[in-house]
Amino acid sequence: MDQKIAEIGSQLQKEFEAVKSAEELEQLRIKYMGRKGVVNDLVKSIPTLPVEQRKTAGQLINKLKNDINGKLNNKKPAEESVTTKKKGAGLFDVTLPGKSIPLGNKHPLVKTLDEIKEIFGKLGFEVEYGREIELEYYNFDALNIPANHASRVDFDTFYISDKALLRSQTSTVQIRTMEKRKPPIRIIAPGKVFRPDTVDARHSFMFHQMEGLIVDETVNFGDLKAVLHLFAKAYFGSDIKMRFRPSFFPFTEPSAEVDISCSICKGKGCSVCSYSGWVEILGAGMVDPNVFKAVGYDEEKYTGFAFGMGVERITMLKYGINDVRLFFENDIRFLSQFK
Ligand SMILES: [Zn+2]
């Protein structure tokens, strides 16, 4: 046995010296270290030896093994570079973990818009998109905000010409949709709106709104409350509470501003909710009969409700974001948190 191992040792020394390529080295590895290789055969033959020789044989085989491994490792880098030069391909270790490629993720506002569409989609709402450049008529007149009406002052607006403007609200889509379709109508209309506001932590000259509108023969305020409750619980969580405060909008009557229990402090009071435990998330109401008149609907026959919410606002409330500018600065450190 000792002699046999010594012979193998000198034989392999010669073979290693003769190696010229990575392939040859690999063949040697298989020949000596493979599952059916020389070393394994030796190991298998140990039980056939007389008991007193087995220990020494084991030690010699181990030594041989280390020797071969050492040779394999020493030879590798040199061979690798030779092969790479020759054939353009080197040895590589297929067991190494792969490099992870950084993946992008949805912008938080896109994520919110997708969630909104999914929630309302389950309630049977279709998605409508209006135009970002609108006529004054759709942004104001048809929504019961006539020229010289005091409430028009509340809607600062970018005018492009006498009659054309960048829409300051997504309510324009209500009119566009009702003009081209007959009831029943059940839509949401997400999109960009524009107002000449000075940019700060709470204002941006461009932001996103999501309008909702239902028109049918028996729609009432209870339906409005039910739909908004379902939405708030689906988006903010089932423990959220909701309250309606009377308000005024030109295109709805009666109108309400809708608050939810603060999602940051769970109603206990924090700086986001001004320590009141409530935060406003949207405005809503029953469609004003004058709006139906503008689109030629029979206001005696149909009723409906509408609501509008700020997409940035509900995203900020959900994730505890305190500055609207973060959405538009494209800082990867911020954006990559929304997987
Ligand atoms: Zn709070």
Give the topology.
Blueprint: H1 2-18, H2 22-33, H3 38-45, H4 51-87, H5 108-122, E1 126-127, E2 133-135, H6 136-139, E3 164-166, H7 172-180, E4 185-194, E5 206-216, H8 221-236, E6 242-249, E7 252-261, E8 278-287, H9 289-295, E9 303-310, H10 311-319, H11 332-335
The structure holds zinc ion.
Attribute tags:
339 residues; alpha+beta; BirA Bifunctional Protein, domain 2; two-stranded antiparallel ribbon; 11 helices; 9 strands; 41% helix; binds zinc ion
> In the CATH hierarchy, what is the architecture of the largest domain at level 2?
2-Layer Sandwich
The H-and-E topology, N to C, reads as HHHHHEEHEHEEHEEEHEHH
Mean pLDDT, as a whole number? 88
CATH topology of the largest domain: BirA Bifunctional Protein, domain 2
Structure report:
- It is built from eleven helices and nine strands.
- The protein is an alpha+beta fold and 339 residues long.
- The chain folds into two domains: 2-87; 108-335, BirA Bifunctional Protein, domain 2 (2-Layer Sandwich), CATH 3.30.930.
- It has a seven-stranded mixed β-sheet with strand order 1-4-5-9-8-7-6, with helices on both faces.
- The longest helix is centred in the N-terminal third of the chain and has 37 residues, at 51-87.
- It is rod-shaped and about 110 Å long.
- The model has no long low-confidence stretch (mean pLDDT 88).
- The structure holds zinc ion.
- The site of zinc ion (ZN) has 7 residues, from loops.
